[in-house]
Amino acid sequence: MSAAPAAEPDSDARSFDRWLREALARIEAFLAERLPGEQAEPVDLHRGMRYAVLDGGKRVRPLLAYAAGELVGAPTAVVDHAAAAVELIHAYSLVHDDLPCMDDDVLRRGKPTVHVAFGEATAMLVGDALQAQAFGLLADAARAGARPEAIVRMLAELACAAGSLGMAGGQAIDLASVGRRIDRDTLQRMHERKTGAMLKASVLMGADCGRPLSADERQALVVYADAVGLAFQIVDDILDVEADSGTLGKTAGKDAQHDKPTYVSLLGLDQSKELAQSLRRQAHSALAGFGVGAGRLGALADMIVLRKS
Question: Could you write out the DSSP letters of every residue in 28-62?
Answer without folding.
Answer: HHHHHHHSPPTTSSSHHHHHHHHHHHSS-S--HHH
